[in-house]
Amino acid sequence: MTEVRRHPIQAVKIRVESVSAGHRARREGDDAVQPTTHLPKVRLASVGDDRRSFSIEVRSSVSVPLLEDQVWLADIRISATFTSDIDITRSDAQAFARASGVFLVWPYARTYLSELAAMADVSASLPPLLSRPQGT
Length: 136
Hints:
The chain is an alpha+beta fold. The protein has one helix at residues 90-119, and strands spanning 9-25, 36-47, 53-65, 70-84. The chain is built from one helix and four strands, in the order ββββα.
């Protein structure tokens, strides 16, 4: 039997910190036809004093043009806490957040945004499954 190796960094908590959705007047620069998913932005929120845990935050939004001069907009902010079997520096945690963290947390934000659109009876395609993050 093949031994399964466990990654030294594991997610221990994922939570929605804030979510909002609603209509607003269309502004200059809003796409008048196509829904827009803003690529997720990820940042390192904190590193534990013990250097064995850290938290990241992922934010994203979707805007969907509606009839006439309205836009439906949804924003979400999700945080995730990770623990590590090894000491981790702030730069290691930042690199993990950009390279792996966003890909572990984004599916939750993506699903939440899609469900919000469905509950609001807004026709929007699913945000992309995986996206490269903007910023840190």
